[in-house]
Amino acid sequence: xxxxxxxxxxxxxxxxxxxxxxxxxxxxxxxxxxxxxxxxxxxxxxxxxxxxxxxxxxxxxxxxxxxxxxxxxxxxxxxxxxxxxxxxxxxxxxxxxxxxxxxxxxxxxxxxxxxxxxxxxxxxxxxxxxxxxxxxxxxxxxxxxxxxxxxxxxxxxxxxxxxxxxxxxxxxxxxxxxxxxxxxxxxxxxxxxxxxxxxxxxxxxxxxxxxxxxxxxxxxxxxxxxxxxxxxxxxxxxxxxxxxxxxxxxxxxxxxxxxxxxxxxxxxxxxxxxxxxxxxxxxxxxxxxxxxxxxxxxxxxxxxxxxxxxxxxxxxxxxxxxxxxxxxxxxxxxxxxxxxxxxxxxxxxxxxxxxxxxxxxxxxxxxxxxxxxxxxxxxxxxxxxxxxxxxxxxxxxxxxxxxxxxxxxxxxxxxxxxxxxxxxxxxxxxxxxxxxxxxxxxxxxxxxxxxxxxxxxxxxxxxxxxxxxxxxxxxxxxxxxxxxxxxxxxxxxxxxxxxxxxxxxxxxxxxxxxxxxxxxxxxxxxxxxxxxxxxxxxxxxxxxxxxxxxxxxxxxxxxxxxxxxxxxxxxxxxxxxxxxxxxxxxxxxxxxxxxxxxxxxxxxxxxxxxxxxxxxxxxxxxxxxxxxxxxxxxxxxxxxxxxxxxxxxxxxxxxxxxxxxxxxxxxxxxxxxxxxxxxxxxxxxxxxxxxxxxxxxxxxxxxxxxxxxxxxxxxxxxxxxxxxxxxxxxxxxxxxxxxxxxxxxxxxxxxxxxxxxxxxxxxxxxxxxxxxxxxxxxxxxxxxxxxxxxxxxxxxxxxxxxxxxxxxxxxxxxxxxxxxxxxxxxxxxxxxxxxxxxxxxxxxxx
Length: 846
Ligand SMILES: Nc1ncnc2c1ncn2[C@@H]1O[C@H](COP(=O)(O)OP(=O)(O)OP(=O)(O)O)[C@@H](O)[C@H]1O
Prior knowledge:
- The chain is built from 27 helices and 20 strands.
- It folds into three domains: 7-106 and 119-368, 3-Layer(aba) Sandwich (Kinesin); 410-652, no CATH class; 677-817, no CATH class.
- 46% of the residues lie in helices and 13% in strands.
- Helix 15 runs antiparallel to helix 20 (647-676) and helix 23 crosses helix 26.
- Strands 1, 3, 7, 8, 9, 10, 13, 16, 17, 18 and 20 form an eleven-stranded mixed β-sheet that branches. The protein has a three-stranded antiparallel β-sheet with strand order 4-5-6, with no helix packed on it. A two-stranded antiparallel sheet has the order 2-19.
- It has 846 residues and is α+β, with helices and mostly antiparallel strands.
- Adenosine-5'-triphosphate is lined by residues 41-42, 44, 119, 121-127, 222, 224-226, 262-263, 331.
- The site of adenosine-5'-triphosphate has 18 residues, from helix 3 and strand 15.
- Keywords: ATP-binding, Coiled coil, Microtubule, Motor protein, Nucleotide-binding.
- Residues 33-355 form the Kinesin motor domain.
């Protein structure tokens, strides 16, 4: 089993081989089942002498059948089918030609082949394999003679495995050989003699040597029984003569194995003893291992195949399910005395024919050729790596990048336009709010109508189908729909201040069907926006920033630019976003709007989510706006560094600011109405302290506003229906005024009860009452809740009233007192208790 010194075996698709015997397969190898043949030998002289009949019969070319000839022991015929069966009259030539030639001659095409003879002792294995080997070698030489264009080298080696010892049948020394495992070569025999054949006669001589060397012995069954497994290996190397000696020379290398197994035997049958018995044990042991391997292989599972259980299976591993085409000739004795052994042989053959091998054409490349080929491949790969991209490729790349840049520039331009537009709209919106505040502060009410520039929008549609309230909403929806660069003037809600005979006002709302007056429409009048529209406006403001920051972020990632805070962003710190309030800062109302207590005071900006690039004008502009917002929002945060945490927060803040603005306008209007309707000071105080500026408070405020508006509009016409007089509201203005006077008297008495002299002096000073004047407490009481436009005064009034009546913690119960709770469950009124402290919350909207 000599190694092919210095050569590397490469797998090669059979189709790629010069002469693929099998016609090739689609893959790197060809899956092929082991060919199993059965050969019946004639009855031996001894068997005939014993009168044993032949009980096995080949009924056709593929089926052998057992048919008992003993009438007293009838047995049902048993048929076994194989690839080919040969009856006793067939010659070895026929067996070779019709059974194994194709497999055996694969070797000349670079495909390994193995021919086995398996059967009980004296069944004709050696007889068959000797002939098959000779025929194969004869055909190989014949093939060589017919293919002069190829150069062939034939090598021959032979071993036997005797009592699990491997011996070199061609070696001078009769020493055991060791088996080694190699990743490339598999299991090989160390120091095995491999003879390069000169010619056919040379091989014949070597085979004779092997025959002479092989261990045989006489047994009861066979005068010259082979007591070992013999493996003859003929290695055929072929290469095209034209490439001989050249670098690109390759060759096909394959081996044909001729395996003559020792015969299975029963000790009782062979009458073996002593050395024969020991031999028989080893033979049976190794054959058992072979049978196990075949059986496991035939099952086709991925289970472990115990090749290493015997030296026989280790050496034959490539021929058993490996890289070889294999044919097994099962030899049978037809005699009755061997019936059980024959059956075992056929069972072995039945398993074997299920075993699949994967034969490949073995192309061998010399080390020199292999190195050169690998060097060539390395050079090619290096060249590919070094090769610059072609001009056309570069041009295409540059063009693509240019297009990307242009697209981004256009997007930036659009975003800038949208952002400026949104900014402008926001300023207009807030300016309108400011104007509306002033308007409300003056006590005037204006009817509302669609802005003149929107009239065409409305007239184009069927405006008669919608109410006046809806027309406002409709107008805003249209504005959103038609919004775009250059169209922001449509969103200038200040235009909504213009009068129109078709417009509605608050009074008409209240006088009309109350159910038709929505809170949202009320809110829209105060802000000049519907709530939906306001949110949509804010969304429109937000969207450009989101796109802008996303765009800048993408630009940053692609351009590897690290962005920092823009100078322009810093430079705008200190400016105010709310231009509308700028000019009104002198008034208490607008000072309180700017110096907004409550949530915004504690508002702290976190680290910026944006890394502004000083060079990025786009982000600078965005940062400017954000900075402006920060500044206006964080006005109480002196010298604070306005930072921005994200667009979402920005929008949330805008919404929050809008909500606060809205509620402030509501409360101012309510205060006006309280005053106009002579509403109880306690009621006012409760109500004022009740709310914290939550979004839900707007609902209660709007209800209160509706009720007050109704009263105010009803009072001039006479008394109010009792069913609408709720809470502290009186049925007439006179009654209300009297009640209010009594309340002020009560509060004056409370000052005497609840406050110390020192506290009262402090109170007089604070409320501008001369310390030496008369009825100082009453003077203070009469000044409470009188400056309706001064939220600071309102706050002080509420604080004092609350203190005097012992109100500490307004809560939900107060809402129910006012009939403002929408919760189904009624709560009991709060238990009053007097207090000298000033412990009540300050509403965030005043
Ligand atoms: N097909 C055949 N035609 C004629 N004679 C045969 C045939 N097969 C075998 N014989 C003869 O039968 C005898 C036993 O054959 P052989 O030695 O080849 O058996 P074996 O299976 O190798 O036995 P063992 O396992 O003991 O070595 C030999 O004398 C052989 O010549």
